Amino acid sequence: MARNWWIRFSVLAVIITVALLAIVPSVTNSDPKKWVISKKVNLGLDLQGGLYMVLGIDFNKVYRDEILVSVKKAQTYLQQEALPVTLGDLDVSDPRDPKQTLIIEGDVEKTTAKLNEYFGYSMRLVGDEGNKVTYGLSRDYLREMETTAVTRSIEVIRNRIDEFGVTEPEINSQGQDRIVVQLPGVRDIDRAKDLIGRTAKLEFRFVNDQLPESQLQAWVDKAKAAGIVYEKGQRFSDYMEKLNTFLKTDLPAGFLIYFEKQTSKVTNEITLMTPYLLEAVSPLGGDALQEATVRIDQQQNRPYVAIDFKSEGAKIFEEITGKNVGRRMAIVLDGNVYSAPVIQGQISGGSAQITLGFGDYNNLLTEARDLALVLRAGALPVELEFQEQRVVGPSLGADSIERAQIAAAIGSVFVFLFTIFYYRVSGVIACVTILVNVLLGFACLVALEATLTLPGIAGIALTVGMAVDGNIIIYERIKEEINKGVPPREAVAMGFDKAFWTILDANLTTALAGLCLLNFGTGPVRGFAVTLLIGLASTVYTSYFVTKLMFDWYVSKRQTISI
Amino acid sequence: MSTPRKSLFNFNLDYVSMFKWCIVASVVLTVSFITLFFTKGLNYGVDFRGGAEVQVRFTEVVNVTDLRTSMEAANVPISSVQSIGDEEKEVLLKVQSEGSEGDLNAASTMVGTVLSEKYGAGKFEILKNDIVGPKAGAQLRNAGFQAMAWALLAIMIYLALRFDVKYAPGAIVALIHDVTFIIGMFILTQKEFSLQIVAALLAVIGYSVNDTVVIYDRVREIEQANPNEDMNKIINRAVNETMSRTILTAGTVFIVCAVMWLMGGGVIQDFFFALTIGTVIGAYSTVFIASPITILFDRLGRKKAAEQAASGKAKAI
Fold first, then answer.
1. Mean pLDDT for chain A?
2. Distance, CA of B185 to CA of B281 (rounded, Å)
3. For chain B, domain boundaries
């Protein structure tokens, strides 16, 4: 055989070996850690059971609330400046862009100027008729509100899901105003809904700044050495409780360890946990808070968060800030530290400012918005509405897998028999090609960490049916050439040459439909699109290259071919 | 064996002469299916209609009428109770679709309560509980329609770029024909039209265009070799030369789909029902729908070219 052939053969051999190693843990259904490639295929909710929810965000209401609050505040501000205005109509003809009219009672020019200055970037003037001015939320502000509302909601939901103890939760945004929550293995829909929908607990706690951070880290490491670590799927509060119980003798009395969690945006896993030593008793709860908003410091052009307390809370706040000037006060939401600002001085009057560190204006603005959202009562930045819920019991999946597998196997056997009957030796080559195709497809599924669903199994079965097409196109071409009197070896070469673009075109057009499906699909349907697309890619590769490799070997041994 | 066996499927037929009758048949069928769509309508599943569904498996054979009576007695707004599977141990309960997501949720919970009161815990298992609020239903319908429209558009652009503009309309009409036909069969059988069926329709679109591309590829090749040949003859030759491939591929896909349809069970069953019809109708539409339209557009193109040439000449004189 030619050297070139051996090189191609070795490449294929390596690919097949890697693919086999990749699928072994899934096929044998054993602990992946025992194998070289310790990855297992992800089963979709329809196959392993679990909970699937679609939560919708009612942005129309969010916008309406936002514009009303802003305008009312502006009214109070103008009152102080002796420029009275009254509120006119709220125009909601376009619910995604509500507009509020203000009727100016004093000097129109002066009031408008003040208003524009006060609103700054957040509002835009849309109408101006005599003493009536109409404002809408600015486009940038709307867009920013949408993205922060979605990302913050996802973050808050994830925190609560951590309380549920789910191994592989998936929480993603879908479109602009929907969040999809997938919880494999969870069946208690009521508890899950309760957990997601309930109001978060907000507290303020003083930080112990006497001890260096390295000491805190040392304690956490000590607990780690004793086997107390946070593992995926564990309830975070359980971990914290265990940790604090374990360190009880080490920690100063009256203090507990809390964490600031950072979640990777890519893998959705907790990447960094900064420990804080906080007072066990919280002097002030979130219920004392009236409102938290983002403001811009006009002099320094820096965003900050303004908080207002209710009258009772204001009194406590004044007292505790007076006693603790210079200390840090942590803002703790659902047991997680979000921020720990330093108290600059005693704060009376029930209004405080939280200034942020230095940095890029836009980053600071986002940070300020996030913090304001955390501080606001209700904690979930927007009201979520459960639009879709699906619960699948674990045994439904097991049955489905079994039936679909048997059917797919029988279908494949029929295809093999048919192909071998029709094409003889070349048919056997085609069948080997299909087997390699399915093997590579499945390995890709594992490598890409894609999710296998029931329609996904259907996609694999369909691939088997359609993959033969590549071989058929090639074989029919070869036959045509042989019938024209071309010798077998040249006929094979010409057949492959002419068939390549046909195969590519045919699979690419199918892939276009697959891509549209991927974009449309949620859950199980997406799984079908994934296996279909993977199948198409491996079909183009195997039906051309793998078949050619075997044919080159075949024609080198024989003068005639059986096709 | 020095020469391969002759292909079993090289019929050498004059397909072009059959186009008339096929087009008549397809137009009649398509029009009647569209009429059915507006009169009888599709049996939309919970995904598109909104509503709630609870699938339960019992340890023993269960009496459906009994179950319905107890649900009604407890005032659970059940619209249907049907037995599924072969052993009559599985039941699908549907909750009436009117009402908000909260009502549906409450109703699904009530189903569970009534079941445990009547049969006792451990005697049944809830296999599946789907609740789709009215908003989500509308959103899914919309998304499904959009996905199909995008797929058709993308394929049309691809064909126009890779082949020639005259090839695109035929392929698209053929695809719309396929989709109409499958939807028509779902109306006739009143099988449930769900999310999965939309996926199947997209798979058929992908598969059927695959067929069309193979024939067009051959048409293009013959056309390039014989530029002055009549389109009718080119298409006839192309269809004849690719016929064995068409039948073989359709055959293998058909085998898989039919087996999965008959044996796959559950969700898989209806999915492959759509695909099985799709394989047959896809192979048919490629030859008998896409080709004649391509001939038509080829003639239009040539006529225009001839007219332009004529007017150019007139100006020159």
1. 83
2. 11
3. 15-43+136-306, 51-132
